[in-house]
Design goal:
With 328 residues, the chain is of the alpha/beta class. The protein contains 11 helices and 12 strands. It has one domain: TIM Barrel (Alpha-Beta Barrel), CATH 3.20.20.30.
Length: 328
C-alpha cells in the first residue's frame, strides 16, 4: 500500500483574507501534504456574486506563507488561460514555494461563468475536454524544458521556457471522471487523479478506477504512476449529532441553496473521528492513495485539526516530520 497523503481544499467564498491565510498556515503546521484552492470567476457555493479571491494569485501568497505543503488549484479551469501562461504561472509558484507546486487542470464545468466573462465555452464539454488534452500536452512539454510546437486549438511556434520548475517533473493533477474522454486524459497526462466522493461511494470509485486502468492500458502507461486522491466536505465532532449541528450552524453563514445544498447534504462526511476513519479505511482498501478535505468559511478548525491528528493517527498514517520527506 502506497503512502497516504492528506490535503485541504480551502475555498475562499465569503472569506476574509486573514481568515483564509490563518487556515492555510494551520494546515501547514499540522502536516497536511497539500493545500488547494478553487479556480472560478463566480462563486459556485450559493450566491455567485459573493466575495472571494482569485486562485493563482492566492497560491502565490500562500507559497510564501507556508513551508511544507504542496500547493495547487483543485482544479484550474483550462479555458480561462492560454496554456503557455499557465506553465509560466505554475513554474513561478514552484520557485516561490521552493518546489511545492502542483499543476491542477480541468476542462471547466460552469458554462455560466465562462459566457458571462466573454470566454469561449466551446461547442460542448467534449470540445473543452479536447482543448484540455491539447493544453496538457503543451504544458507538460514546457515544464520539461522542451521546445513546443502546436497547430491545433492552440498555436505554438517553437516555444521554450526558462526557468524550468525546481521539482521535475511537476505533479500534474487532473479532475475528471467521464468514462470516454475524461479518464482517457487522466491516463495520458495525470500524476494525480482527483474525484469527489460520498461516504458510501466506494463502488462508484471502484468502477471508475477500473475504467481508468483500461485507459492506461490503451495509452501504454503504468496505472501505478497515477495516485488516486479522493475528496469530500467533512465535519468531525465527538458525536454524529454534534457534527450535524455544526453543519447546520455553517448554513447560517454560507448561502448554499437549491441543487448545491442538496448535493452538499448528500455527499457530506459528518460524524465522529471513528466514522471518518472507517470510511477512509474502506477507500484505502479499494485503492485510494490520499484524501482532500474541502472547507468553506467559517473555517472549521476543529475538523481540520481532528483529521490531521486523531484520524490520521488511527489510520496509522502520521506524516513525517517537516524536512524528512513527507509523502506527496
Amino acid at each position: 500500500m502506497r503512502p497516504f497523503s492528506l490535503g485541504l481544499a480551502t475555498l475562499t467564498y465569503g472569506a476574509t483574507w486573514p481568515s483564509a491565510l490563518e487556515t492555510v498556515r494551520l494546515a501547514d503546521r499540522l502536516g497536511y501534504d497539500q493545500v488547494f484552492t478553487a479556480d472560478h470567476l463566480f462563486a459556485t457555493g450559493g450566491d455567485p456574486l459573493q466575495p472571494f479571491f482569485e486562485g493563482w494569485t492566492t497560491l502565490a501568497a500562500w507559497a510564501q506563507a507556508t513551508s511544507r505543503a504542496d500547493l495547487g488549484l483543485l482544479v484550474g479551469a483550462n479555458p480561462f488561460r492560454n496554456p503557455g501562461i499557465v506553465a509560466r504561472m505554475a513554474t513561478t509558484i514552484d520557485h516561490i514555494s521552493g518546489g511545492r507546486a502542483i499543476l491542477g487542470l480541468g476542462a471547466a464545468w460552469d458554462d455560466v461563468e465562462l459566457r458571462a466573462h466573454g470566454i469561449d465555452p466551446g461547442a460542448s464539454v467534449g470540445e473543452r475536454l479536447d482543448w484540455l488534452d491539447e493544453s496538457l500536452t503543451i504544458i507538460r512539454g514546457l515544464l520539461a524544458g522542451d521546445e513546443v510546437r502546436s497547430n491545433g486549438h492552440y498555436a505554438f511556434d517553437r516555444v521554450r521556457h526558462e526557468p524550468v520548475p525546481i521539482r521535475r517533473p511537476m505533479p500534474v493533477l487532473v479532475g475528471a471522471y467521464g468514462e470516454r474522454k475524461g479518464l482517457g486524459i487522466v491516463a495520458r497526462h495525470a500524476d494525480l487523479w482527483h474525484l469527489w466522493v460520498g461516504l458510501d461511494d466506494a463502488p462508484r470509485f471502484t468502477h471508475l478506477d477500473g475504467v481508468l486502468r483500461r485507459h492506461c492500458d490503451t495509452a501504454g502507461r503504468d496505472e501505478r504512476a497515477i495516485r488516486r486522491l479522493l475528496g469530500a466536505k467533512v465535519v468531525i465532532r465527538r458525536t454524529r449529532a454534534a457534527a450535524d449541528a455544526a453543519f447546520e450552524r455553517q448554513l447560517q453563514v454560507q448561502p448554499w441553496r437549491g441543487d448545491v445544498l442538496t448535493y452538499i447534504r448528500e455527499s457530506l462526511w459528518a460524524g465522529t473521528p471513528d466514522d471518518v476513519t472507517r470510511a477512509l479505511e474502506r477507500y484505502r482498501g479499494v485503492g485510494m492513495d490520499g484524501f482532500i478535505a474541502q472547507v468553506y468559511p467559517p473555517y472549521d478548525h476543529e475538523t481540520i485539526e481532528a483529521l490531521a491528528t486523531t484520524v490520521r493517527e488511527r489510520l496509522g498514517e502520521l506524516p513525517a516530520p517537516a524536512g524528512e520527506g513527507a509523502p506527496r
